[in-house]
Amino acid sequence: MHMMWFTERAYHYDPEVEPEKYHALENQILKIRSFFGTPNRFFDAEHGARLLNQYLDEKVYTDQELLNFDGVMLNEHHGTPFCMGAVMDVEAAALAAKTKRVKIVLLGNPAATVANQLRLAEELAMIDLISGGRLVSGWVRGAGSEQFANNTNPALNRELFEEAVDFIEKAWTTPGPFRYEGKRLHFRHVNPWVLPLQKPRPPFWIPGLISPDTVAWCARRRYPYVALATRLEPTMDLWEIYGKTAAAEGYQAGPENFGYLQPVMVGDNQARAEELGKRLLFGGAFAHFARPEWMFPPGYNSREATRRLATLDGPNTSGKPIFSATGEESEAQIEEIKRGIYAGYPQVQKDLQMIAGTPDNVIPKLKMILEVLRPGIFSFWLDGPVSAGDRKRCLELLNRDVIPALREHGKKLGLVSPFERAPGSVPLVRETGYATVSNPGALNYSEAVA
Amino acid sequence: MASSEWSERSISLAGIKLPIITAGSGRPLLVLNDEFGYSGWFKWQSALSRDHTLIIPMAPGFGRAPRIEWVESVRDLGCLYSRMLREEGLTDIDVVGFSFGAWVAAEMIASCPHQFRRAVLVAPGGIRPPVGELTDSFNYPANDFVRLTVLDPKATPEFSLLYGEPGPDQAERLDEARAQFARLAWQPYFHNPSLPYLLEGAGESQVLIIWGAQDKVVPRSAVEKYNQVIKGSKLVVFDNCGHRPEIEQSEKFVGELKKFLA
Prior knowledge:
The complex is a heterodimer.
Chain A: E1 2-6, H1 19-31, H2 45-65, E2 71-74, H3 88-98, E3 103-110, H4 117-130, E4 135-140, H5 144-150, H6 157-173, E5 178-181, E6 186-190, E7 206-208, H7 212-221, E8 225-228, H8 232-248, E9 258-266, H9 270-278, H10 292-295, H11 303-310, H12 331-343, H13 345-350, E10 355-357, H14 359-373, E11 377-381, H15 388-413, H16 445-449
Parallel strand pairs in A: 1-2, 1-11, 2-3, 3-4, 7-8, 8-9, 9-10, 9-11
Antiparallel strand pairs in A: 5-6
Chain B: E1 6-13, E2 16-23, E3 27-32, H1 43-48, E4 52-57, H2 74-87, E5 93-98, H3 100-111, E6 116-122, H4 142-148, H5 168-185, H6 195-200, E7 207-212, H7 220-229, E8 234-238, H8 245-248, H9 250-261
Parallel strand pairs in B: 3-4, 3-5, 5-6, 6-7, 7-8
Antiparallel strand pairs in B: 1-2, 2-4
Helix pairs in contact in B: 2-3
C-alpha cells in the first residue's frame, strides 16, 4: 500500500486561541454560504504566512521523522479560505528541495484552467528533477469555481482537460523541437529543456468526486483513480464503472487502480479527538465549498447531475431560492445554519465521513474501509481549525499506531499500490470475466461504530 | 409541433436539422432569441404575427437544436444565419433581436449592412459599456438571473411563462443554452471589442434600439454607444421597465415595432 496524508492548507483560526477571528470568518463564510467568494479582506497576510509555513513544516517533519508515511499529498484551489494552495506547484517545489524521502503527490494540477500547459510541464519536470524523481503528477478538471477564478470557459473544460493531459505527456515524451496545433491548445515550439527524471514520465493519478466520465477515462488510460472522501456506496459504484471499463480494455482492475481519501482526527483522548474532529465542519465544510452557480457553471456538469439538481429545493428551482433576495444570510439565519451544521456531526461520524478517536478506536473503522473498498492508495485527511500541536500529535499517532496496523491488514487483503504492481498490468481472465474490486459485503456501519 | 397560432418545421442548415417556428402572415420578421434560447409564445408575438410572418430559428446548441461544432463565436452564428437567409431565399427581411439575439443581429448588420430592411435591437449585448458593466449572468443560478431580467416579476403577467415549466427538463434545456452562451460569449464577456468600429463603418442603417430604463443587465451607456455608432439609428427608452420590454410593456413594445416596421 501507499500511505500518505493530506490537508487543504486552509486559512482559519484556532477557536481556543483567537475565538473572535474564528467566529468572524465562519460567519462571513456562512453569510454567503460559500467559502469561494468570501472577500479576501479577511486574509491577514502575516497569519497566512505562519499557516503556510506550518503546513510545509508538517510535511518536512513527516519526511524526516514519521517514517511510516510514504507520501504527502497536495491539491489546488483558488479564491477561497478553504485552501490556500492557490499554486500547489510552489509548495511542491519547496518540498522537492526540503524533503528527501516522501513521494510528493499532487492531486491534482488543474490542467484545463492553467494559462500555459507547456509551462506547467516545465514546472512539474523541475519538481521531479529537484526531488530526485519523487513526483506523482495528478490531474483534475478543476472544480466549477476554478473556472471562475481562472476565467476559463466551463463549457470547454472537459475537452481542454483531456487535450492538456495528452499534450503534457507528449511534451515529456516526444523529442523536441516540435510544433503542436491541437483543437484548443497551440504551441509553435515545444522543446522543454527540463524533462522529468522518472521515465517515461511520473505516474499520473486522478482524484475525483462524482463524475462517471472521469472514472471511465481513467480506466481507459490505466490511471489510478483516487476517490476524495466520497461516501462508501457511491465510491463503490464509481469503482464498478472503472472495473467494467477496464475489463472492456482487457485488464483486471485491482487495488493498484484505486485510492481513497479519509478524513480523520486521532488523539490520545477519545472525547477530545471527537471534539477536534467536529471542527472539520467549520463553515459547513465541503457542502459550502461554493454556491451552486459557481460549483456547477453551465456546460461543466453532466446532464444527469443538472436534472438532479433541479429537483432539489434550491436556487435551481423556480421560486424557491435557498438564499435571500440579496444572496446573503442574516445574522439570525447564520446562527440557525451553524446549529444545523454541528448538530449533524453524529451522523457524519456514523457515515464514517469523519473517523475521530484514539488509535484503538479508529483502527477498526479504517480496517473495515480497507476491506470494503480495497484501495492500494490510502490518504488520511487532516483538517478543521485545529492547533498545530493537535495536528502534530494526530500525525504522530497515525504514524506510530494506525499505519502499521493498516499496512499489516492491507497485506492480508492483498492491497498493493501502483508502485508495487503497475495499474493495468493484470490481464482479464476471459473465462471468469471481470471481478469486482470492492467488497460491499464487508460494509457494516454499526459494527464499525461499535 | 404546432398551435393554432404557430407551427414548427425543420430546415437543413450546415449539416443539422434546424427547427424554425413560423407564425402569421405578412412581411417576414426574423426573431433572434436571447441567451436562454427560445422563451416561449407571448402576446407580443401574437400581436405582431397579425401583419408579419415571424421566423424564429431555434439557435443551434441553445437547447432545441443541435450544436454546430464550428460555430464558436457570435460572429460565426451571425454568418450562419446569413447563410440561412440566403438558402431560404429570405431577402428584404426585417429582424428583431433580444439581448444576445440583438448582438447577433448587430454582427449581421456589421458584416452586411443591407441584409435587413429594418432592424430592432432590444436591450442589446455586444458592445462593452463605456460606463458600468454588462451583468455577468454566469454569476447567478439560471432562475435567479431570469428574475433579475424584469423590473418586477409579480407585475409582469407573462413572467411565469418564460422558458416553460420549472423542473428537470427546463433545467437541462437552460443549462444547455447557457453552456452554448458560454462557448460563444465567455470572454470577453457578452461583447465583441471590434463591433462598434464595424458598425461605424456600416453606413446609414434603419435601426431601432429599445431599452428599459431599469435594465439590470445592459447599462444605458451600452445602448447609447449603439445609438452613436449606428448612423441613423433611433433609441427609445421605456421607463419603469427592465431587460424585457417585450413582456413588461407589451402593448407599447408592439406599438413601437409596428410603427417602425411599417
